[in-house]
């Protein structure tokens, strides 16, 4: 159902069984996948690609022009995966680069009043709480929980399966599987409760979770440098995809991770 009271540009590509409610705005150069629902007063702007089975709620703006002075009007994209939910008044900016894209992976739930800046990349299967703010060029791994009003500064990276508590300010690299809390942020343990809950689906056994915790004791609780902690992990923790994910994330980011004192980096 497409309401006669909605604005749908004739060039927009609308999939099968899409519902567009009154007063929604669908711009040119937009694609919306099958079975998606666009609520009243939502705006889907030029350059947006929305997957199948998505829901966009009242007042959300998807594919908004970037809030960055480097953007000079280049055509760019905002890509939303399948089965995503984007709640009221969320704003997602498209890329500042010609043919670049801001990307939101499948099965992401974005709560009300979240702002996701240009060229952010969310791997998917994550929950983004109310009022979370992303600056540009932020990367977030899969199965991440960001609680309400967390702030992620430009260029920050968050690994898989992290849980960042409400109001935290992230200005750096958050390695996978951990919990962060407070301001300035502190390491609050591994995300064991969520991993155990999803263990059967994703293969998180108790022994794997124990090994993840052992790895982070070397990093955050041994009083040694990150460089030495990684050597200890290689010697002390059994090889596994989870161990390799921790090691590669930290090394790929030049050993610079949040919540480690500067003199131990």
Summary keywords:
single chain; 265 residues; alpha/beta; ten-stranded mixed beta sheet; nine-stranded parallel beta sheet; 5 helices; elongated
Could you characterize the architecture of this molecule?
By secondary structure, the protein is α/β, with parallel strands linked by helices. Helix content is 18%, strand content 28%. It is built from 5 helices and 28 strands. It has helices at residues 192-197, 199-202, 206-220, 226-236, 241-252, and strands at residues 7-8, 13-14, 19-20, 25-26, 31-32, 37-38, 43-44, 48-50, 55-56, 61-64, 77-80, 85-86, 91-93, 101-104, 109-110, 115-116, 121-124, 127-128, 133-134, 139-142, 145-146, 151-152, 157-158, 163-164, 169-170, 173-174, 178-181, 186-190. Strands 3-6-9-12-15-18-21-24-27-28 form a 10-stranded mixed beta sheet. The model has no long low-confidence stretch (mean pLDDT 97).
Mean pLDDT rating = 97
* Helical run tally: 5
Which blocks of ≥5 consecutive residues have pLDDT under 50? none
The helix content, as a percent range, equals 10-25%
Global geometry = elongated
Strand content: 25-35%
User: How many beta-strand elements?
Assistant: 28
Q: Strand pairing plus helix content: what structural class?
A: alpha/beta
Strand order of the largest sheet: 3-6-9-12-15-18-21-24-27-28
Which radius of gyration do the C-alpha atoms yield?
20 Å
The description of the largest β-sheet is:
10 strands, mixed
Distance between the termini: 57 Å
Summarize the structure.
With 265 residues, the protein is of the alpha/beta class. The protein contains 5 helices and 28 strands.
């Amino acid at each position: 159902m497409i309401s006669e009271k909605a604005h749908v540009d004739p060039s927009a590509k609308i999939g099968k069984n899409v519902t567009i409610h009154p007063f929604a705005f669908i711009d040119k150069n937009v694609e919306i996948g099958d079975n998606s629902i666009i609520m009243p007063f939502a705006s889907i702007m030029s350059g947006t690609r929305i997957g199948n089975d998505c829901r966009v709620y009242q007042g959300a703006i998807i594919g908004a022009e970037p809030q960055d002075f480097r953007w000079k009007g280049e055509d760019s994209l905002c890509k939303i995966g399948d089965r995503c939910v984007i709640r009221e008044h969320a704003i997602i900016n498209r890329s500042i680069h010609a043919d670049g894209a801001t990307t939101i992976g499948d099965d992401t739930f974005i709560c009300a009043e979240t702002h996701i800046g240009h060229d952010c990349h969310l791997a998917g299967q994550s929950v983004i709480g109310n009022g979370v703010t992303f600056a540009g060029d932020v990367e977030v791994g899969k199965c991440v929980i960001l609680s309400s009003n967390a702030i992620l500064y430009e260029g920050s990276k968050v690994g898989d399966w992290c849980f960042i508590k409400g109001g935290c300010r992230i200005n750096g690299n958050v390695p996978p599987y951990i919990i962060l809390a407070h301001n300035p942020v502190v390491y609050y343990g591994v995300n064991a409760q969520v991993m155990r809950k999803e263990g059967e689906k994703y293969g998180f056994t108790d022994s794997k979770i124990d090994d993840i915790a052992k790895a982070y004791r070397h990093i955050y609780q041994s009083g040694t440098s990150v460089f030495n902690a990684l050597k200890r992990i290689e010697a002390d923790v059994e090889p596994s995809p989870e161990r390799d994910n921790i090691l590669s994330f930290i090394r790929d980011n030049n050993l610079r991770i949040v919540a480690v004192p500067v003199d131990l980096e």
